[in-house]
Amino acid sequence: MTDAVVGNVQDQETLAARVERGVAPDWVADHWQTFHEGLTGERNGSPFPCFFGAESVRDGEPLYTAVPSMSDPDALFDLGRTLLTYLETYRDHSERASLVTFFQPPERPLTEAEYHDRLWHILQFLHVHDPEPWPEDIPTDPDDPHWEFCFGGEPMFPTCRAPFYDTRKSRYCPVGLEITFQPRALFEDLNVTADTEAGQHARDVIQGRLEEYDGVCPHADLGDWGVEGDREWSQYMLSSDEDASPDDCPITVTREHPKSKWLIGTPAPEPAD
């Protein structure tokens, strides 16, 4: 596994060592420190609500990458290639190896609406340049309760932390945008999907911890995949100000493939004569 986190997949031990030695970029070090402290520490006397995530970080299981821009095409192509590498290898690392993705903070502070725009730009970019077609068993309409974001043929749950969360500290990252990509297979392998007893118990525990940790009621958009009335897309980046968040899912998903001649992880097309 490579020793550089920007544009590559890196394990937690190596990332922490690079930060400790002072050889990681400052913004990567800031991201790592606030992420680690947030997931392994306590607030209001309560541990981080998602105990699967907290335990995985304490056990050194997640994988990491860093992206130097939220909008530059080259940076997003690199993110796509990194995500493909992760999907090919994460099962060999651990059973709870999500991909934690740190984005370099913008030159100026962004509003909540701008962070929502950045997230959906990133996901739309990945979809348009996805080398794999959209899975046949996943609907393309985000208003369907069985819809979820897919890339590289894999359904996944990308959850975000960002600087605009004043009260929901479980989603707060003071540095910039952070996306944790979690393949659905992770939840299935752990037997904690919504249709299992263990999954429902985990949901109840997390909901109780959320209220204690954040000091406010759990967000109304939180729900379960495949449950009528619940939607995945609005949970990726929970709203803080309803006027600043999208009413409808901003991504356009189609089964057309390929959508671009520039597909992530494939050779560039030959120039025209």
Please give a structural write-up.
The structure is a single chain. With 273 residues, the chain is of the alpha+beta class. The chain has one domain. It has 8 helices and 8 strands. The strands form 2 sheets. Strands 1-4-5-8-7-6 form a 6-stranded mixed β-sheet, with helices on both faces. Helix 4 links the parallel strand 4 and strand 5. The model has no long low-confidence stretch (mean pLDDT 88).
Please give the structural blueprint.
Blueprint (H helix, E strand, L loop, with lengths): L9 E2 H10 L4 H15 L1 E2 L2 E2 L3 H8 L4 E5 L5 H21 L5 E5 L8 H17 L21 E2 L2 E8 L16 E6 H6 L7 H18 L18 H4 L37
Parallel strand pairs: 4-5
Antiparallel strand pairs: 1-4, 2-3, 5-8, 6-7, 7-8
